[in-house]
């Protein structure tokens, strides 16, 4: 089922420097809440900058849904330190509010009062706002307040060059893009390992269960919070995570040209469902950017997706077509409530190992039958991942193996890769993380979801969430004096407001003309 990659690992060990220069980036979402746990009704704080133009602090779907974006770096400690500084800076500006520490918001059946994010009066700002109005009309506003962490990962150019030569391939300008698609296919096959280990949303508010066919028998606590005894990440389920059906869009990851063309078709083909919503309301206000299957590329909600930095005025699709895949974005990470900043170093170390492994292991092309089976595996882990002796499918014949059997094979390879990375950094961090996390399979009670569920059942979501939010807020306030990026963040606040004004003043087109030109 899983290829023996001992020869490939030996090849890496012979030249470990090929893995020096892995670049990473983190995007962490978190809801601003009032001290009582209810959604903040305040607009995005002016004191932390313009959500339209700030490099590192913006908003996602809602006005109170903060998003912290780190620079890319090959230094994990710097990345985590910068993310901490963003939290400390923000906490110092919103002293009467808190940052919610879970992916799933705490909600009662009362009115939600979700304010869609605003970005000013420029055409660019109106487009970002209209896109979110479209998300609300297409999928609902509540579901778009669910938060997550995105992990961006790229391998060094020297690795790809040597990898291409080692495979005796002809000189092909697309070999890096092909390599990342190879990684993506394997992430779909085996990436369920991430919600098993790090899923932190085993419970969900009753508000998310309305008008939903329940496949599983949920239990309920006194708060009207529903949970499953073995679930890991309900955020990734059809109850929470808004997931575009990539099979329906015929978007596969087997060939770079086919991927970009299928993405282009989804961006240009009208959907009957979304056409029925209408483009504008009776007052002439846009209800969505367009009526196509995808308004923009970001609406393709998948567990992992290929990315490329865009240049001014360039769309993601254009950037991919022009220069190929630059990195992958992992989107299946819940907020880690046991970390003040939503992610820990051990998670990053494990992700590095696993993504390198996905690159090395043989990755046959995936057809629709394969993908349906892959989807069933993810669903099984999401809803019942910690069930004793849980099994998943290993081939289209529907043969199965237990998680422990599969994890033993994977972690044996991960440990060998850890030796290489630790050799490069002259420490033991990767090996230590690998050993510690492997225990999660033998003892599911160590998983994040099991620990979360224990607290949520005993103390409730509101009490647990507010306790953590207050604890982390105090920590951020107390540590803000250590914030080495404080001056840069103050400067960026000023610069971002000035940049927004400049963009607004330079507009020459009407909004409708602007949209047509996009």
From TrEMBL:
<dbReference type="GO" id="GO:0005829">
    <property type="term" value="C:cytosol"/>
</dbReference>
<keyword id="KW-0547">Nucleotide-binding</keyword>
<dbReference type="InterPro" id="IPR014746">
    <property type="entry name" value="Gln_synth/guanido_kin_cat_dom"/>
</dbReference>
<dbReference type="InterPro" id="IPR007370">
    <property type="entry name" value="Glu_cys_ligase"/>
</dbReference>
<comment type="pathway">
    <text>Sulfur metabolism; glutathione biosynthesis; glutathione from L-cysteine and L-glutamate: step 1/2.</text>
</comment>
<keyword id="KW-0317">Glutathione biosynthesis</keyword>
<dbReference type="GO" id="GO:0046872">
    <property type="term" value="F:metal ion binding"/>
</dbReference>
<dbReference type="GO" id="GO:0005524">
    <property type="term" value="F:ATP binding"/>
</dbReference>
<keyword id="KW-0436">Ligase</keyword>
<dbReference type="InterPro" id="IPR006334">
    <property type="entry name" value="Glut_cys_ligase"/>
</dbReference>
<dbReference type="Pfam" id="PF04262">
    <property type="entry name" value="Glu_cys_ligase"/>
</dbReference>
<dbReference type="GO" id="GO:0006750">
    <property type="term" value="P:glutathione biosynthetic process"/>
</dbReference>
<dbReference type="GO" id="GO:0004357">
    <property type="term" value="F:glutamate-cysteine ligase activity"/>
</dbReference>
<comment type="similarity">
    <text>Belongs to the glutamate--cysteine ligase type 1 family. Type 1 subfamily.</text>
</comment>
<keyword id="KW-0067">ATP-binding</keyword>
<protein>
    <recommendedName>
        <fullName>Glutamate--cysteine ligase</fullName>
        <ecNumber>6.3.2.2</ecNumber>
    </recommendedName>
</protein>
<feature type="domain" description="Glutamate--cysteine ligase">
    <location>
        <begin position="11"/>
        <end position="381"/>
    </location>
</feature>
